[in-house]
Amino acid sequence: MNDGNIQILPLFSLGPLAITNTVVTTWAIMALLGLFAWLLSRRLRMEPGPVQTAVEGVVLAIENAISAVAPEHSQRILPFIGTLWIFLVIANLTGLIPGAHSPTRDLSATAALAFLVFLSTVWYGIRISGIKNYLRHYLTPSPILLPFHLISEVTRTVALAVRLFGNMMSLEMAALLILLVAGFLAPVPILMLHIIEALVQAYIFGMLALIYVAGSIQSQQLRQKQKE
Amino acid sequence: MELSWSTFVLELINFLVLLWILKHFLYKPVLDIIAKRRAAIEKTRAEAEALHTDAEKLQEQYQRRLADWSKERQKAREDLAREIEVQRAQKIADMKSVLQQEEEKVRVAESRRQIDALHKTEETALMQAATFATRLLEQAAGPEVEGRLVDMVIDELNQLPPDRVAEIRKSFEATPGEIQVSSAFPLSDDHRQRLEEAMTRFAGRTVPLRFGQNKELLAGVHITLGAWVLSANLQDELKGMAELAHGQ
After folding, report:
1. What is the ipTM of this complex?
2. Any chain B CB within 8 A of the CB of A103?
3. What is the 3 state secondary structure string of chain B?
4. Would you list the domain boundaries of chain A?
5. What are the chain A neighbours of B6 within 8 Å (beta carbons)?
6. Which range of residues forms the domain containing residue B230?
C-alpha cells in the first residue's frame, strides 16, 4: 500500500528528463522480470520443473488467447501482447506493496502504453498489408468516413489510457481513504478487491490491445480476400 | 492528473526495452523448448505409431501365417486321410485277394477231397465189385465159359488188321521158341487146333504150342511168347478191372 501520498513526484532529473517514482517502479519491475527471464532461460530443461512448468503454462495461455483472436499471427504479436499482460499484472499488483506505487496509476504511463498500442496497430497493419493497403482502409468504404476513422483511433487510444489510469487511481485512492477513516484491518477487503481489479484491468487492457491489433490485421486481409 | 512528457517518453522506452528483454529471454526460449518438446513428443508418437504399425503388420503376418498353417494342416490331414483311405482300400483289396485265394485253396482242397473221396468210393466200389465178380465168376466159371472166351480170342485174332498182324509176326520172328498156352480147364481138341491155326497164321510158320493148366485163371487162356502176352481169362480181366480202379 502506499504511504498516503498519491501524487506523482519527480525523484531526480537526468538532464531534461524528470525521473518520477513511476519510472523508478517501472525500472524495478523491468529489472525483476529481466533477471527472472534471464535465469529461467539458462535453466530450461526438456523435463520442466515447477517454475518452468508455471512459466510455460503462462506463455501457452497467452498464446492460446491470442490464437483464439488472431490464429494466423499469434507468433508475431505474442511478444507485444504478452509483455503488456505480464507488465500490467505486475505493475497493477505493485500497488499492494507497502511504500510502492503502481505505475499504472500514472496517466503518463497508461498513456504511453495506450500510445504503444496505437503504434502497434499501425505497425502490424503496415507490415502485414503494406502501407498503401493500410492507409486505404481509412478511406473505405467511403472517403467521407476518414474523419470518423481518425477520431475512432484517437478516442479508443485515449479511452484505453484513461480506463486503466482511472481504475487504478480510484482503487488506490479508495484504499487510502478507507485506511484513513477505518483503521488498520478495514482495508483488507479492499486489498482483495485490488488484486481482482488489478488482474481484470490488466486482462481488459491486454485483450483490447489484442483486439485492436488483430482487427487492424484482419480487416486488411478481409478486404484483400474480398478483392480477390 | 497531469501528463508528464518525460515520464511518457521514458515509459515508452521502458516498455520497448522490456519487450525486447522478454522476447529474447522469455518467449523465444520458452517457445523453443516447448516446440522441441512437442517435436520430441511427436517423434516419440511417430515412433510409437511406427511400432504400432509394425506390430499390426507382424500381427497380420502372424495371422496370415497361422491361416496358412491351418490350411496346410487341413491339407495334410486331407492328404493323410486320402492316403489312409487308399491304403485301407489297398489292404482290403489285398485281404480280399488273400481271402479269395484262401477260399480258392479251400475250394480246390475240398474239391480234391471230394474227388479223392469219390475215387476212394469208386475204388472201394470197384474193389467190392471185383471181389463180388471174382466170387461170382469163381462160382460161375466153367469149361463152357472158357470155351466161349477161347472162341472170342480166336475171333478177335482173326479180325485183327493186317498192320497189327505184321507187327505181331515181327515179334514172333524176333522171339523163336514155343508158345505157352495156359488155361483154367483142359482145352478141347477143336480149340487147340483152332489156336494152332491162328498162331501159325500170325507167325507165318509152324510154331509149337505147349498147353498147360492154371486154375487161377478161373476161365479162359493166357498165351505167352517171349515178351508178347495175350490174356483172355477171367483172372486177368478181374485184375485189370482192379488195376483200372486203382489207376483212376
Report:
1. 0.90
2. yes
3. CCCCHHHHHHHHHHHHHHHHHHHHHHHHHHHHHHHHHHHHHHHHHHHHHHHHHHHHHHHHHHHHHHHHHHHHHHHHHHHHHHHHHHHHHHHHHHHHHHHHHHHHHHHHHHHHHHHHHHHHHHHHHHHHHHHHHHHHHHHHCCHHHHHHHHHHHHHHHHCCCHHHHHHHHHHHHHCCCCEEEEECCCCCHHHHHHHHHHHHHHHCCCCCEEEEECHHHCCEEEEEECCEEEEEEHHHHHHHHHHHHHHC
4. 10-227
5. 16-20
6. 141-247
